[in-house]
Amino acid sequence: MRYPQFLTDGGRLGFIAPSFGCNIEPYKSAFDNAKRKFVDMGYSTIDGPNAYAGDGIGISSTPQQCADEINLFFKNDMSDVVFSCGGGELMCEDLPFVDFEAIKASKPKWFMGYSDNTNLTFLLNTLCDTASVYGPCAPTFGMEQWHQAIEDAFDLIRGNKTEFSSYGKWERESLKTEENPLAPYNVTEESVRRLYIGNKKVDSLTMSGRLLGGCLDCLNNLVGTKFDKVAKFNEKYGNDGILWFLESCDLNMMDLRRTVWHLENAGWFDKCSGFIIGRPLHYDEEFMGLDRFTAVLEIIKHHNVPIMFDADLGHLPPAIPIVSGAKASLKAEGNEYRISYEIKNAPNL
User: Which residues fall within 8 angstroms of residue 312, CB to CB, at 6 or more apart?
Assistant: First the structure.
């Protein structure tokens, strides 16, 4: 696994929009404020041509132009790290135009984003053997004041921190609006985890392995396509155990069940050593007896590995930044947990 160089003092931050761009509020003002913050911290910034674009369908521009922007930033020294400008809906359509072979042959760069950006964070791991960060998109750094999760994400990209603790509360209802674009996280709900080993509920657990995963809405689309190289990834890294981190956005409980079944029967979980399941956006929804626990547990319990539900991951923030592709260790006790990443060969560690 290739680990990029971490961001150094005075470094260059690049911003691309392979999914939605920052063309409307509250994202535009939040993105502008994030860049002001970075400049005040001594960094320089560079926008990709689609950063403020909004003429695409489910993405910032045409799939070709979105892919051109990805290729431009990863094949050249325009920036030291790359942030996504936002999530969206149809980033998968960029993929046929992305030059993954050239990216694999180029100097690796950290890329940070989540949700629809799974299409890049995941494929950087499985196609380019390059670690990535499943973490907040650029406008989130524009909030006043930064939540600890945002501090953690920036500390990670700078190489200042590789061990993280769970957060005590989470946000059910956001206060961010067009009129209030810089609102911080509205954390009002107590974090409660549910821990299992196989189908046995436990009070504590440990798990370790090589992280892989993202948003299930996106992962499901990749199964069986020419971009699906999970079998080769499992063959190469299976001895580490694959620690799957999974969350969902638009999926109802039946969708969630079908998606996990699809990945299971495609062989993606054959080398699993544990599962970190984030809070789904459809958090309290039940459908014909299925809830967020049974929708997943009944499919994966036979692996008899540690499973943690309602992790700080996904579309109901805050979220611990995940170094996708890296080896990790996690220890959970009740509602609290810690996760640490092994990033031994990053050039400036």
Answer: 149, 166, 167, 170, 191, 278, 279, 318, 319, 320
Banded model confidence at residue 348, pLDDT cuts 50, 70, 90: very low
Distance CA 51, CA 79 (A): 14
Q: Which two tokens stand for residue 191?
A: 């974090």
DSSP state of 78: S
The 3-state DSSP class for residue 146 equals coil
- pTM, 2 dp: 0.96
Say how far apart CA 205 and CA 225 lie, in whole Å.
35
Given a cut of 70, whether residue 123 has pLDDT beyond it is yes
Q: Which two tokens stand for residue 108?
A: 């690796």
User: In degrees to the nearest 10, what's the CA dihedral of 256, 129, 101, 75?
Assistant: 100
Tell me the one-letter amino acid at 235.
Answer: E
**Residue 281 burial class via C-beta count within 10 angstroms: exposed 0-12, middle 13-18, buried 19 and up:** middle
What does the alpha-carbon distance between residue 94 and residue 64 come to, in Å, rounded to a whole number? 6
DSSP 8-state secondary structure symbol assigned to residue 228 = -
Q: For the residues of 34-46, what is the DSSP string, one character each?
A: HHHHHHHTT-EEE
